[in-house]
Write a structure and sequence with these properties.
Layout: E1 8-12, H1 19-31, E2 36-39, H2 49-59, E3 64-67, E4 70-71, H3 77-90, E5 95-100, H4 105-111, H5 118-138, E6 156-161, H6 164-173, E7 176-179, H7 198-212, E8 220-224, E9 227-230, H8 234-246, H9 250-255, E10 259-262, H10 264-278, E11 280-286, H11 294-300
Parallel strand pairs: 1-2, 1-11, 2-3, 3-5, 4-5, 5-6, 6-7, 7-8, 8-11, 9-10
Helix pairs in contact: 2-3, 3-5, 5-6, 6-7, 10-11
Length: 303
């Protein structure tokens, strides 16, 4: 991990009215220079991640396809491997597999699965990662006796979070570490407040550097933009929209790594500064903002 790793950008898929709308997003993302299409894993109005990515594989030839993040507690490891390895047959070597412990209480309620404390969920996540990666890399699992077929191509693995335990797990197992604000409330309607501040991200990056050891140079840091907008007056936008939503003063919310607002040159300057400060080079844009961020992608990708 260095401050000069080249920029790349992903699109996080949202909800779509029909297949045609999803196809347009996928094809445009590939055509306009985005590096990846990522699909979340929530039991709400959004589409299922693995079938969505299988569809996207048929419409693309270069775009990396991934999840951000699959909730490990909602899937058995050997079954998850089978689905992912089958997906790889449609997009060989293009998978970026994000695995997480699950954080949203509503997903567990809708699935009828108890939501255990974070430490328990993270321990099970580590077990899932161990089994899936052993099947992926070795073709068999010594723990369960599962068979790693069909044989997949190498993939990139993504894990992350906002707390030290989850980030330590990510550093041990992932190629890409995704930094977020800590979501301990298990709800979407609670302002992130100081958890989203630049100072808290300084701490998270320090933890990664301390825990990574010899792996530090191998890691790519990713950040999902919770709020992103190309606007003429970033200060006004922060005062009217962002500060109330995040529970932070306008200047602080504009400095948060999960927020990106301003005109295109201002946004590019902010991203360069954040790469220097945090080492984050891989930025994920919500699908609703993907088109307006295309000039940013064109200016910064690969630089």
């Amino acid at each position: 991990m260095t401050a000069h790793r080249p920029f790349r950008f992903g699109v996080l898929a949202g909800a779509f009215p029909d297949l045609a709308a999803f196809r347009r997003l996928v094809r445009r993302a590939e055509e306009t220079g985005y590096s990846s299409l990522l699909v979340p894993d929530h039991l709400d109005h959004r589409w299922g991640p693995l079938v969505s990515l299988a569809l996207a594989a048929g419409w693309t030839s270069r775009l990396t396809l991934g999840t951000l993040m699959l909730a490990a507690d909602l899937r058995r490891p050997a079954v998850l491997f089978k689905e992912l390895a089958t997906l790889d047959q449609a997009a060989p070597g293009r998978l970026e597999i994000g695995l997480g412990a699950g954080w949203l209480a509503a997903d567990f309620e809708r699935a009828g699965v108890p939501m255990d404390p974070p430490a328990t969920r993270i321990a099970r996540l580590e077990e899932t990662v161990h089994i899936v990666r052993e099947l992926w890399d070795k073709g068999a699992c010594s723990v369960t006796g599962a068979i790693g077929q069909p044989r997949p191509a190498p993939a990139r693995w993504v894990m992350g979070g906002g707390g030290r335990r989850m980030l330590r797990t990510a550093v041990r197992h992932a190629d890409i570490v995704s930094l977020t604000a800590q979501l301990s409330s298990a709800r979407k309607d609670v302002p992130l407040g100081a958890n989203a501040s630049a100072e808290r991200f300084d701490t998270r990056v320090r933890w990664i550097r301390e825990d990574a050891g010899d792996r530090l140079a191998e890691l790519e840091l990713q950040c999902l933009l919770t709020a992103a907008a190309v606007v003429r007056d970033s200060r006004d936008h922060a005062e009217r929209v962002l500060a109330p939503a995040f529970g932070l003063p306008p200047a602080e919310v504009l400095d948060s790594p999960v927020v990106l607002a301003g005109e295109v040159p201002e946004i590019c300057d902010r991203l360069r500064a954040r790469r220097e400060r945090f080492g984050i080079s891989y930025w994920v844009v919500p699908a609703a903002r993907a088109e307006e961020f295309e000039p940013v992608v064109a200016r910064l990708s690969g630089t």
